[in-house]
Amino acid sequence: MKLPCLSLTAALALAFSAPVATAETRAAAPAARASAPTVVTPGPRLMSPAEMNENASPPGELRPENAVTPQIVIPLRKQPSVQPKPEKRNLKGVKPATAGGVNDAAARCEALTDAAARAACRESAKR
């Protein structure tokens, strides 16, 4: 090869390799920034034991400005019932009917097929 062509080839090689090298460094820069430690801002200053002693107050001295109003009331004792107790009527010779029960005697009378027999059965059950 001739000397001018050699220098031209070298110049072109350098020209094409320079943007590739800068592109590699640019691509590596964000990764380097991401792995770099972030700056941590310091929090509030911690007080020394002497400063804490100066600012301390004994328990029980801090009270709210206004009286606290309770929001709910929880009864702690059993409340007396205000419903009156039902009176018990004591009829002599008559059994009190049970709540929700079936009167067996009346059911037997109603099960009879003859109307005259049903009437006679009802009369005997009333006694």
Provide a quick synopsis of the model.
This protein is an all-alpha fold. It has helices at residues 3-35, 49-55, 104-110, 115-126.
- Find the count of extended strands (DSSP E, 2+ residues): 0
Average the pLDDT over all residues and give the rounded result: 75
Radius of gyration: 52 Å
Q: Sketch the topology as an H/E string, one letter per element.
A: HHHH
Give the helix proportion (percent range).
40-55%
Shape call = elongated
Give the low-pLDDT segments. Answer: none
N/C terminus separation: 145 Å
Number of helices: 4
Secondary-structure-derived class? mainly alpha
User: How much strand?
Assistant: under 5%
Query: Main beta sheet, described?
Result: none
In terms of topology, how is this protein built?
Layout: H1 3-35, H2 49-55, H3 104-110, H4 115-126
Helix pairs in contact: 3-4
